[in-house]
Every structure is written in structure tokens, then in C-alpha cells.
Specification:
- The complex is a heterodimer of chains A (492) and B (219).
- Chain A is mainly α.
- Chain A folds into 3 domains: 1-124; 140-271, no CATH class; 273-492, no CATH class.
- Chain A has 19 helices and 2 strands.
- Chain A has helices at 2-19, 24-51, 65-85, 100-122, 126-144, 150-183, 194-200, 206-224, 232-239, 242-271, 274-296, 301-322, 325-356, 367-370, 372-385, 392-406, 410-435, 456-474, 477-490, and strands spanning 54-56, 61-63.
- Chain A has a two-stranded antiparallel ribbon.
- The two termini of chain A are 31 Å apart.
- Chain B is built from 7 helices and no strands.
- Chain B starts with a helix and ends in a 13-residue tail after the last helix.
- Chain B has one domain (3-213).
- Classes of the chains: A mainly alpha (492), B mainly alpha (219).
- At the A-B interface, α5, α6, α8 and α9 of A face α4, α5, α6 and α7 of B.
Chain lengths: 492, 219
């Protein structure tokens, strides 16, 4: 019952938006529904820790510690994104005033997006997981192209074509897992259930599982944005409205990674940890190298954030490659920390874009002096993203590196640190240009001339997100039990 | 159905899926391509029907009905309606010309038979021996995706990839449980609808466009 409520809540929010024809109160109802999903996710986490995995909807939904952790991440970030999204449709460039029909479409799609992500992590069956992940591609395609500019249409076309191909490969991988499961004696109706997969995985055919896991990493990896299947990501993230970029970067990528984590656990039982580890190390290092090299000469700050997402997904892949409980716990903490920091940054960059009228790095100067609120948020967000203390990304990166050394992946950790140093220097260089320097004379035409600072209700959730990100970096206690339990689900 | 006629009908249906894929490569008119998509969807449905009758599996028959409705009727009709207004309803300048495409498809089929043999052997049934046909269809779909530049052809390429994988799934495992099959078909249908809407918006925005002219976004 609890799981069903969590799943239905965001959809109720979407219904409210549809009934309210996108009026402001209905957008706030959607925000409240996402907040409700977050609260119920926390309640579910407490119950899972006390009573063990929950199930719902006659066994179709199942929540273990890993699932509820992901529900909490999705709830937190969708709360942030929908909060800031309350005024997004009003800003669509072609109509200065609020267009009710488009606001309604926007709000409904965002809520459907959140609902499908929750379905993906609560599904008991990996086939349903696939259906949900594919559905997120479809609903977000319109959101990426929401502004209907040339760039955003191009981005959404690339996005849906590349991700559909990827997700098709993941489907083929799922077919092969199903085949292996049937041959190992699984019953057809339940052979793809997570519990049944784990129970029978020892008897899965090894060569078939190698093929299947390769396809799954390639397929879901496309959605995660791992190199070399990342090409859609910078375009989609830079063209989508800011709250959608925040949701995609903050949670959609990691929901796809959640699928890889699940299948990795099955593969590890069937093949031992070596195979999945090799594959994840390769894609992880490739992503890090690619992100680092493309960040150096980046000219667009939204694309800069997008490449940084590829970097962080690479780090997460390396952490998952290590595979021990410590590493997985750190991966999960990193998923939450990165989600918070990155979504705050994307949301702030949306405000900066509106205020400054350009997304070019060299078009924005001395932001801290001219717009202290936006500049400050962007700066602190970058500090969190770059993994400086006290933010939780510092802790999680440190622990991942430690775990990698522990399992003999020290060389990969060293390479990753080299890439991180390059990223650090590149991002700090870009940020220095954007944030610091004297205010200078008022800028000529080209800036849209908005000078008022964002209202408090806009700044509050952003500050809140960063505070939470710092808090969980310093105090582990609210999460440590959940993280350990979640890591136990999939760790080798 | 007797054993041998079961297998020959199954082979015929699966073979038709692949033949349609190759035919799409040398057809330039979008109308003809869309009718091939319909035939391919119908043959895929026939594969599921034959397997369902043979295995006495009601779920598979239901899945077959969904496949036929979605892939042989709804999607071709939608595609036809969308391309009706498309002034450039021919692939005039493909990146790879037709003879080269056919050679490539032959190579892809050989590749599919080499790589699919292991899986076919593992499945062990007579239907399983046809798995390489599904893989070949999927590979030709990928080829259409990279070698054709008109939006409608890319949608067709995606559909071929999807049909190839669906064929593989039917032959390997007699399909997924029905509810998942339903979800998968629904996702495919929605995906095609979204792509068609997008291609119409692209046409409104860019005029008659080849996809490799989309160069707005790069590093």
C-alpha cells in the first residue's frame, strides 16, 4: 500500500496540473506531491530497515534498501526541480506571458517523468524496470524540445534516437538474461523478478551472461551517459529547460545506473566479479578522460555542467567496479550528493540564463559582484560539485578511491584522480571568469536587462539543497544505516 | 500443426521479416518503405502466432495480437499520414548508396549468423536456430539509422532494430510474460508518435531537412 502510494503521488500531482490547466496553484500541488513522495520514501526507508523488504501491488512492486534509497533521491531532486519549475513555462521564449496550455503540458510531463523513475526503482521485475526507463525517454523527449528552438529540437531528436537505440540494446540484454533464467529453471512468469534472478544466478550460463551484461552496460550506459554512448547528453542537458536538466542530470542518469547495479549483482553471482569489473572500469575511465578533455575548452556553462555529469558517472562506474560493500555505499552517497549539487547548479544556471540572456561562459562576468545571490549559489554549488569538503561528494570520492585501492584497482583510481585534477582546473578557470572580477560598466544590449535578484522562495530550495549536501557530508548518521543496508543488496 | 509444417511456416515468417529489412534498403520511396514496415510487423506477428499455437501459449497469442495491431496497422498508418504531407518523400541522397547498402547488408547477415550461432546453439530448440535472422534484422536497422538521412527513414530504422530484437526474443524465449510485452509495445508506439511529432516540428522549423544538416549543437 505504501509503495503504491509513493508511485501514485507524483501522478496525482500531474492530474492536479492537468485539472488546474497549469495555473500556479496546480503547479504548487505538484510540488507538494513530490514532497509527499519524498516523505513517504523516508518512512518506507525506516520500515525497510526495521522489517526488511516491502512489497506492494500483488508483488509487482518491491522495495529493498536500495530501492527506497533511490526513491529518496528521486523525491528530493524532483521536489527541488518542480519547485523551481513553477515559473518555467512562463519563460518559454516565444510567449512572454503565461500560456496555460503549455504550462499544463509541461507540468504533466514532468510529473509523469518523476512517476516513471519511481516505477523503475520500485519494480520487482527487471522487465518492468526496462519499460519504465524507456518511458522516461519518451516523456522527456518533449521536455528537452520544450522551447521549440532549432537547438532544442535538434537536441531532442538526437536524444530520443540515441537513447532508443541504447535502450533497445538493453532490451536484448534483458532477453538474454531471461533466456539464461529460463534455462536455469526459472518459472516464466517470475523468472525476471529480482529475487528469483538472484536465487538462480549461480546456474546461469556464463557465456550467455557475458553477452547479456555487455549489452546491458552498453544499453543502460547510453542513458547513464557513459562514454562512448554519451553523445546525446551535452546537447539534451544544455537545451532542456533548467528544471528538466536538473531532473535528468540529478536522477535520470543514476536511475539508469541503478539498473546496471542490479544486473551487475546478478552477473557477479553468475560469473564472479571480474567480468563486470573490467567492463565498468573501461567505460568509467573512458568517460572520465572524455569529460576532462572536453571541459578544458568549454564555452557554454550548461554544457560544462553536462560534461561534469559524464565525469561523475565515470566516477560512479569506477566505484561500482570495485564492488565491495564500502564502495557501493560510497557510490550511493555520491549519487545523492551529485544529484543535489548538480540539480542546484542546473537550476541556478537557469536563473543566470534568464538574467543574463546568454549561456556562454564569456558572456557572463563578475557575477558575484553584480548578482550576489546567483553568483554565490553557483559558486558554492561548484565547490560542492568539485568534491571539496564539507560537502558529501568529498566523502564519497575519498571512500570510493580507498575501496578501489583495496580491491587492486589502485591504478584506475590514480588515473581517475588525474582526470579529476584536470576537471578541477578547467572548471575553476571557467568559474573564475564567470563569478569574480569587478562589476564594471553596465553591459550593452544582449543582456535581457533583468536586474532584480530572484525572489526568496526561489533561492530557499537551492540553499536548502546545498545545506543538505553539506550536512550529509559532515554527519553520516541519518544515512549510514540505509547506505550499508542498500550496499548489502548488490555488493559482492 | 505437424512438426515439419510448423517449422517451415515459422521459417517463412521469420525470413520475411529479414527480407523486408533488406527491401527497405533498396526502396527509395517512403510509401513503399512504409508498406514494407507493415509487412514486417505482420510477419513478426505471424512468428508469435505460430509459436503460440505450437506451444499452446495463450499469453503469446495475445502478445501476437498486440504486435499485429501496433506494428502492422497503427504505426504504418501513422507513418503514412505523417509522410503524406512530406514533400521530399524520397531518400534522394543517402549517405551510402543502394548497391553499397546491399553489400553491407549481406555482410551484416553473415556477421549475424556467425555471432548468433552461439545463442542459437544454447537455445537448443528448432525455433532457436532462427535467432540469427532476428540479429541480422537488428543490425540492418542500425545500418539504416546511420546511412539514411531523412527523419522518416530514421524512424523506420529504429522500428527495424526493435522488430529484430522482438523476433530474437520470440525465438529465444517464446516472448516475455504478456504484461511486459504489452508495456514494450506501448513504449514502441509512443516512441514512434513522439518521433513523428518531432520530425514535423523539425520540418516546420528547418524546412525540408536532412538530419546531417542539423549542426547547431557541437563543441
Amino acid at each position: 500500500m505504501l509503495l503504491m502510494t509513493i508511485l501514485v503521488l507524483p501522478l496525482l500531482g500531474g492530474t492536479a496540473v492537468a485539472l488546474g490547466r497549469g495555473r500556479t496553484w496546480s503547479a504548487w500541488a505538484a510540488v507538494a506531491s513530490n514532497g509527499g513522495a519524498l516523505a513517504l520514501g523516508i518512512i518506507a526507508a525506516v520500515r525497510v530497515l526495521r522489517e526488511g523488504p516491502l512489497s506492494g501491488a500483488r508483488g509487482t512492486l518491491r522495495a529493498d534498501a536500495l530501492s527506497v534509497f533511490m526513491v529518496i533521491v528521486i523525491g528530493a531532486i524532483s521536489l527541488l526541480a518542480s519547485w523551481l519549475g513553477v515559473r518555467t513555462p512562463a519563460r518559454a521564449p516565444e510567449d512572454g506571458h503565461r500560456n496555460p496550455e503549455r504550462s499544463a503540458v509541461y507540468g504533466v510531463l514532468v510529473q509523469a517523468f518523476v512517476g516513471f523513475m519511481i516505477l523503475a526503482v520500485l519494480a520487482a521485475n527487471v522487465g518492468v524496470l526496462w519499460v519504465a526507463v524507456e518511458a522516461t525517454t519518451i516523456v522527456t523527449a518533449f521536455l528537452v524540445g520544450f522551447r521549440r528552438t532549432r537547438g532544442s529540437l535538434e537536441a531532442s531528436w538526437k536524444y530520443i534516437v540515441i537513447c532508443s537505440v541504447g535502450i533497445a540494446l538493453a532490451f536484448l540484454g534483458t532477453v538474454f538474461v531471461y533466456l539464461a533464467a529460463l534455462h536455469a529453471g526459472g518459472h516464466s512468469a517470475h523468472a525476471l523478478d529480482w529475487t528469483s534472478l538472484m536465487a538462480h544466478a549461480r546456474h546461469f550460463d556464463p557465456s550467455l551472461m557475458r553477452l547479456a551484461f555487455g549489452l546491458l552496460v552498453l544499453g543502460y550506459g547510453t542513458k547513464v551517459g557513459l562514454a562512448p554512448m554519451h553523445t546525446w547528453l551535452p546537447d539534451a542537458h544544455s537545451q532542456a529547460p533548467a528544471p528538466v536538466s536538473a531532473l535528468m542530470s540529478g536522477v535520470l542518469l543514476t536511475v539508469a545506473f541503478y539498473a546496471i547495479l542490479r544486473f551487475k549483482a546478478v552477473t557477479d553471482v553468475a560469473l564472479g566479479p571480474g567480468f563486470a569489473r573490467t567492463l565498468l572500469v573501461i567505460v568509467g575511465l573512458l568517460s572520465l578522460a572524455l569529460a576532462a578533455s572536453l571541459l578544458i575548452a568549454q564555452r557554454d556553462y550548461k554544457r560544462m555542467l553536462a560534461y561534469s555529469s559524464i565525469e561523475h558517472m565515470g566516477l560512479i562506474a569506477l566505484g561500482a567496479a570495485a564492488g565491495i560493500r564500502l564502495a557501493i555505499a560510497a557510490v550511493l552517497l555520491h549519487i545523492l550528493g551529485h544529484g543535489l549539487a548538480k540539480s542546484v547548479l542546473f537550476l541556478t544556471s537557469g536563473e543566470i540564463l534568464t538574467a543574463e540572456g546568454t549561456s556562454r561562459i564569456d558572456g557572463v562576468r563578475s557575477l558575484v559582484a553584480r548578482r550576489p545571490a546567483l553568483g554565490g549559489l553557483f559558486g558554492v554549488g561548484l565547490v560542492a560539485l568539485l568534491g571539496l569538503p564539507p560537502f558529501s561528494l568529498f566523502t564519497s570520492e575519498l571512500v570510493m578511491v580507498r575501496a578501489e585501492f583495496e580491491v587492486g584497482l589502485g591504478w584506475a583510481a590514480v588515473l581517475a584522480m588525474v582526470a579529476m585534477v584536470v576537471v578541477f582546473i578547467a572548471v575553476v578557470g571557467h568559474a573564475r571568469h564567470m563569478l569574480l572580477g569587478p562589476a564594471g560598466p553596465p553591459r550593452p544590449a544582449g543582456s535581457s536587462g533583468v536586474t532584480a535578484p530572484p525572489p526568496r522562495w526561489v533561492a530557499a530550495p537551492l540553499i536548502g539543497g546545498l545545506v543538505v549536501c553539506g550536512f550529509i557530508g559532515v554527519f553520516a548518521w541519518p544515512l549510514s544505516g540505509l547506505l550499508t543496508a542498500a550496499a548489502r543488496v548488490v555488493a559482492t | 500443426m505437424s512438426g515439419s509444417s510448423y517449422f517451415s511456416v515459422l521459417t517463412l515468417a521469420a525470413g520475411t521479416v529479414l527480407v523486408c529489412a533488406v527491401a527497405i534498403l533498396w526502396l527509395a520511396s517512403i510509401r513503399a518503405v512504409i508498406s514494407m514496415v507493415a509487412v514486417q510487423g505482420a510477419s513478426l506477428g505471424l512468428v508469435a502466432v505460430v509459436l503460440g499455437v505450437h506451444l499452446h501459449d495463450a499469453g503469446l497469442l495475445a502478445a501476437a495480437a498486440v504486435v499485429v495491431v501496433v506494428k502492422a496497422v497503427v504505426i504504418p498508418v501513422l507513418l503514412g499520414r505523417a509522410s503524406g504531407s512530406d514533400s521530399g518523400s524520397r531518400e534522394s541522397r543517402p549517405l551510402v548508396n543502394v548497391p553499397a547498402s546491399l553489400v553491407a547488408s549481406a555482410a551484416l547477415i553473415v556477421l549475424a549468423f556467425v555471432t548468433g550461432r552461439g545463442v542459437a546453439h544454447f537455445v537448443g530448440t528448432r525455433a532457436g536456430a532462427l535467432v540469427p535472422i532476428g540479429i541480422a534484422t537488428m543490425l540492418i536497422g542500425f545500418f539504416v539509422l546511420v546511412a539514411r538521412r531523412r527523419p522518416t527513414f530514421q524512424i523506420v530504422g529504429l522500428l527495424m532494430v526493435d522488430n529484430g530484437i522482438a523476433l530474437t526474443a520470440f525465438l529465444c524465449t517464446a516472448g516475455f510474460p504478456f504484461l511486459i510485452e504489452l508495456g514494450v509495445s506501448f513504449d514502441v508506439l509512443l516512441g514512434v508518435v513522439v518521433l513523428m511529432v518531432l520530425s514535423q516540428r523539425l520540418r516546420l522549423e528547418f524546412g525540408d531537412v536532412d538530419l546531417d544538416e542539423l549542426q547547431e549543437l557541437h563543441d
